[in-house]
Every structure is written in C-alpha cells, then in structure tokens.
Specification:
This protein is an alpha/beta fold. The protein has ten helices and five strands. It has one domain: Rossmann fold (3-Layer(aba) Sandwich), CATH 3.40.50.150.
C-alpha cells in the first residue's frame, strides 16, 4: 500500500497531459540541463545498478539509459502507476526499452539490501523531505538499498545565494509558476504547494 505523502498525490496519480510540458516551461528548460549534469554524476564511477527514485514519467532514467554502458542496470520506482505507464511508453518511443519501471513506496522499496551502487532522485527529494514526518523512513530506506560506499545524487532546486536573485526567484514562483502551472494542469493546489515548498526549502548548506 502506498501512502498519501503530499498534496501532489492526486495530480501524480492522474498525470495531466501538460505535466512534462510544464516542467520545461516553468524551469525555462533548465530542468533538462540539470538532469543531464546529474546523470553524468550518477554514472561517473561506472555503477552496475542505478535506481531513479520517484522517477515520475522517467526522464532521469531514460537520460541515464541513453548514455550508460549497456551493462548498467537502470531501474525506476514511483508510487504513480499512470506515470510509470507514461514512462514505459516514452521508453519505447525513444528506443530505450531496457529500463525497468516498478510501482512502489519510497518508504518500503521492493529491493534487496545493498542492491544499488547509486540512487538518483530528480526534483522529488523536496516532496520527501519538506516538512515531511516520514523523512527518516525515506532516508533509512535509501541507505538500506545502497551498497556500502554507494552514492545518493539529488537534483533539486535550492535558494539563490544572491538576495536580489532570491527575491526575483520567489516572486516568479508565487506570481507566475504557481498560477501558470495551476491554470494549465487544473491542479491549482498542487502548484501552490510546489511554489510554497520551493520558496521555503533548504539552501545548499542546510540540505547537506
């Protein structure tokens, strides 16, 4: 059974057609750049097994598959079966059928202890950690499935160090991103939450 951890659950379960498009639009396509950089970091030490945790529609897993050696096992895990189905269709469309996508709970993953060399999570760690009472469960489970000396790679938004840029970033989230996202998707509450959590999320030092 998968718990309802965040107010985004309903949106994730229904997967609005605008989901991927909004990710590109609201980040000015920087999400693709950040994901590519994260994928290179994940594959830097030639891991044998990699997990894309909270994989959503599969963008990180598919980015990994496109550049990883053919011997690298890449799995994706998410609690939204509709998103996983969308990810599987994208994999076939792109000619990358080797990625295996599993339905499951980040607090109770269906994997053996020490199974993965690297766990990557792209733009979802905030949902697991921002004022979430189950954060300790998530972290313990990530540690359980990582091999000794394994690596966790987090791709996530943070707070700009420059105060002027930070104010502009917060204004953009409040007045543009949340409204545009809510209007296009129909999930106004979800995008208000995303904007609120991004404005109040940890900076680089706090998250470390």
């Amino acid at each position: 059974m998968v718990k309802d951890y965040r107010p985004l659950q309903k949106m994730f379960m229904e997967v609005p057609p605008s989901y991927d498009m909004l990710n590109r639009l609201l980040t000015f396509r920087f999400d693709k750049l950040w994901r590519k950089r994260g994928a290179r970091e994940i594959l830097k030490d030639n891991p044998e097994r990699v997990l894309d945790l909270c994989c959503g529609t599969g963008d990180l897993a598919l980015q990994l598959k496109a550049i990883a050696p053919c011997t690298t096992e890449i799995l994706g895990l998410d609690y939204s079966e509709p998103m996983l189905e969308y990810a599987r269709k994208k994999a076939l469309k792109r000619g990358l059928p080797g990625v295996v996508f599993h339905f499951g709970d980040a607090a109770a993953m269906p994997y053996l202890d020490n199974y993965f060399d690297v766990v990557g999570i792209a733009f979802a760690f905030r949902n697991l950690s921002y004022r979430n009472k189950d954060l300790d469960k998530f972290l313990a489970e990530i540690l359980r499935v990582l091999s000794p000396g394994g690596k966790l790679v987090i791709i996530e938004t943070s707070q700009p160090k420059n105060q002027v840029l930070r104010k502009l970033f917060h204004a953009y989230l409040t007045h543009i991103a949340s409204r545009v996202g809510g209007w296009f998707s129909g999930y106004h509450g979800a995008y208000k939450y995303l904007a609120h959590s991004a404005r109040n999320y940890y900076n680089e030092k706090e998250i470390i």
